[in-house]
Amino acid sequence: MSARQRIDLHTHSDRSDGTDSPAELVRRAQRLGVDVLGLTDHDTTEGWQEAADVAERTGVRLVRGIEVSCVFHGYGVHLLAFLPDPAYPPLVEELGRVLAGRSSRLPATLERLRSLGIDIDVHDVHQVAGKSAAMGRPHVADALIELGVVRDRNEAFERFLGPQGPAYVHRYAADLEAMIGIIAASGGVTVIAHPWASRHDHTALDEDGLARLHEAGLAGVEVDHEDHPPQVRARLRDLARGLDLVVTGSSDYHGVGKIDHELACNTTAPEELDRLLDLAAAAARAAGRDVPLVVPAR
Ligand SMILES: [Zn+2]
Ligand SMILES: [Zn+2]
Q: What is the pTM (predicted TM-score) of this model?
């Protein structure tokens, strides 16, 4: 066997909040010597076909995925779903709910701000957001700065937009355990993304929590991620080994949308990918699916 494969299983294109098109992303992977690439846009499979077409031509092996916005014990958790059947009705339904929640959040947030006496509408947000496809709270914060209501984004989040703020609008997220079951039933496998990243509360994702999720069908955890400092990676890796969970590592690349996350800055070991693909193949067989798991097939 030739040189050890470079495997990056968690990346974003401009179909969610990355800046490269799916085609550009695959070509970049080829240029940087990435052998296996996971495309995992937030809550959508829209980039899959374009990425698969380019993968066929370049020989980069594409693992089609989704990073699903979930909730566990009241806290947001990102779930990487690999190789699910994108047409599986319960999955289509849940992703539809998550996406609808995203697009209804902005008008609801602005409504609350107006009820607080702030004269702001969607045009103010468009003006600061430019061409961004995913307008979110940071853009609302920028509009508030522009209007002279707050000095900076921090103040906007503290006074209005953060979870304790009066203009905070709850956004729908899928129930984590239910989503793990849905992905398994659709013939795919799941890995918790950056479970111990500092900005997320991980108290529910402790050993007991992860053991319970493993019972529910969880295949693995993302250990090597830029949001995990070295000591955190070491503890999480031990815990994952103890629970017999697959260990992955990835860049969470967003193009210029996120600095210090270049493709393959973290990678997954080939043996771990093999375990993940074996589990996916078993799930696909159990679901009665017969699809090429990785593009191009070999
Ligand atoms: Zn994430
Ligand atoms: Zn991500």
A: 0.87
